[in-house]
Specification:
It contains 14 helices and 24 strands. It is an alpha/beta fold.
Amino acid sequence: MDKIIIEGGKRLSGTIPVSGAKNAALTLLPCALLTDEPLTLRNLPRLADIDGFQHLMNQFGVSTTIAGSRPEDFGRVMTLAATRITNSVAPYELVRKMRASILVLGPMLARMGEATVSLPGGCAIGNRPIDLHLKALEAFGAHIELAAGYVKAIAPDGGLPGGRYSFPVVSVGATENALMAAVTARGKSTLHNAAREPEIVDLCNLLAAMGAEIEGIGTSDLTIHGVPRLHGATYRVMSDRIEAGSYACAAAITGGDVFLKHAVIEEMEATVQALRDAGVHVEPRPDGVQVAADGPLRAVTLSTAPYPGFATDMQAQLMALLCRAEGASVLTETIFENRYMHVPELNRMGAHIETSGRTAIVHGVPRLTGAEVMATDLRASMSLVIAGLAAEGETQVHRLYHLDRGYERLEEKLALLGAQIERLGGD
Ligand code: EPZ
């Protein structure tokens, strides 16, 4: 398996291009199921999860073509055509590798009147139930059956009537599935306490471009007026606010000065506030965000929360940065029950972090030391890279398949900024 070798201590400077957002792309791709006309998505990141989703769509009979792009380009253009759906089952062997496959449930149900998806199961950060997805679809008129590790959703004859659902817990995926099921329902649907992440706004904007009628975009109260059919569209995936925040932490921990090209500061305000509280300079620029750290880092206390709060997907990366702050930071992870697996590995690099339940106390240390470390999940692996960039000596990060799910050509991008980093295959 591949590993990344980092010689720490290099100050990062220069421009890094931010790619299209993984968590937007994974909900935009299944929208192709909602029409028999072509859907073209631009600025798609080159990521393992995107390749996995493309393969899943091919299983349904959806044709996918990648427009020519030069090897040095970041991002790709993909056209999907669900002219005819030949299969409405998402099988276990694909879903177990990529739990975001559950996002085909709503659109497939809307298109075919039924959908069968393997239950995604848990992952490293938590057991990741889908009960809210199913309750929302039932509220919109679907009949749900669970059997043999699969969930089957069935619409009444003539299609989903639509309905009203209020989420007891904010759920990004459940909001996305409900939206994609409701856009061609026979009547009106409303969602309350819906997720408001920028990726949800991106989904609503694509659906509207395809002819959907949605009110309240960007708020937690959404009204969807069902329309008989949607048409094709061409749409650019939003920039990845989590990738941008991750590289901001990488720049800051090295005392660097980096321009995050294509980053949109309005989509990452909670991250920007946390960085500024930590003593990092963050300034908006035309088509990007400038991040610089030229003085000591300060401790920060915060809790993760649904948007517009501090993103759980940024917790591990900020924690790595705070290992080098003066004083003790207190982080509370309120979204997932097991999202501190980067802590033991960071402590092996000389960090001093104590966890108790959902709370982590990060005691700043004067230095980190390079070590052989192991990635356990996507964002934890990025926190180890961030720590390795500042550590004295060499860091080796193993199990890179976690990293490759969410960070497009990471070592190439960091090398653009002067990092001494390389990827070695086959150990
Ligand atoms: C999305 O996951 C993201 N993934 C996650 O990013 C992100 O961490 C998460 O939203 C929160 O922002 C994608 O978009 C592909 P949720 P999702 O439903 O939709 C509970 C990354 O690193 N819940 O908002 O699965 C759940 O257990 C990944 O890029 C239920 O109880 O997250 C969690 O505690 C990791 N029942 C909370 O809600 C449900 O039916 C939020 O989960 C669904 C969720």
